[in-house]
Amino acid sequence: MKTINNFSNSILIIDDNSENLRVLSNILKPEGYKIRIATNGEQTLKSVVSTPPDLILLDILMPKMNGYEICERLKKDESTKEIPVIFLSALDDIQDKLKGFAVGGVDYITKPFQTEEVLARVRTHLELKKSKEELHNSYIIIKKQKQQIEYDLKQAKQTQLALFPKSLPNIPRVRISYKYIPIRQIGGDYYDIIELGDGKYGIMVGDATGHDISAALITFMISGIFKNAIKKTHSTEVTLQNINQDLYLQIPEGKFSTMFYGIYDSVDQTLLYTSAAHPSGILIRKKTQEIIELNTYGSLLGVFSNQESNFTEEKVQLFTGDKIIIYTDALIEVLNESGEMIDFAQFSEFFQNNSGETLEQLLDNLINYSISFSQSGRLEDDCTIIGMELF
Known about the structure:
Layout: E1 10-14, H1 18-28, E2 34-38, H2 41-50, E3 55-59, H3 67-76, E4 85-89, H4 94-102, E5 107-110, H5 115-161, E6 174-181, E7 189-197, E8 200-208, H6 213-229, H7 236-250, E9 257-265, E10 270-276, E11 281-284, E12 291-294, E13 314-317, E14 323-327, H8 344-354, H9 359-373, E15 383-390
Parallel strand pairs: 1-2, 1-3, 3-4, 4-5
Antiparallel strand pairs: 6-15, 7-8, 8-9, 9-10, 10-13, 11-12, 11-14, 14-15
Helix pairs in contact: 2-3, 6-7
């Protein structure tokens, strides 16, 4: 019974001895291999280029162009260099074998031919070739998939950036600076500053759980909910209640967001604010050099219904020279060599030491401070900071 080879089955035998060609053909044909023959170098090169075989059995001692030269020519050609070459020879000297491997041969069969040896070596190198081709094809597929993912991420990034304000409103006698640093192309942080009318401005910084595509999708959802919620009230507490209830009904289980939302009144220079499990805002008093923590109790957004949640609202008076810093937790959730995170006392010391800096420089120094505190020397999460300074 003939056993049909399931792998590549085209074999080119190159030998100037007709008896060798006959013996090898009789060994290989019953196995279902398609056999082609060639008797000299020039004929071989033309045949291989026009119709590449899956495997070459190549005699070494041939006139005009020996097997080593043929193999070298094949390996220099991009179209033929991947075809495995098994040398055939009566030579059994180790130097001859080493030379065969040096010019690109994959194996060596010594004459007289033994049927089982020939079949075993042929089968092995056809299987290796098939595996190599499959690995290469898998690499091509993975490369294309990676390119598609990178393209999709770039598109998602552009879509997400469109959610952020293209330009910040001009608030009377207030200087604004901000930083947005996602650790990947897209992230879970989001921010907005919106003019509400009557001299009031809504200032929001949020952080959706995670920093991947799912987090970005949540930011899309929250952006729409936020813009709708601020139209209904000028209470930061009620705004976050409305956002929470809408998010609770829509967000996937296990996902949530934090948020700091403040309304700055440019007429009486006050900041009304509410936090939903978000890091405290920072107030730097210019006159007294105090560092004041702006914090109110508030539940995570989207985890519980309003019946199970609680939000509170506070108001603070601001004066010329005061600075407000609102940020996401990437700045404080960095670990030093002792496994400790930045605490409020350390934060206060930083702001005391940098209170005289310009607003822009202050934000840069803050990022560098967190990075230098971290044992890893980098931020571990998306980072967003909004700074305000009254003048």
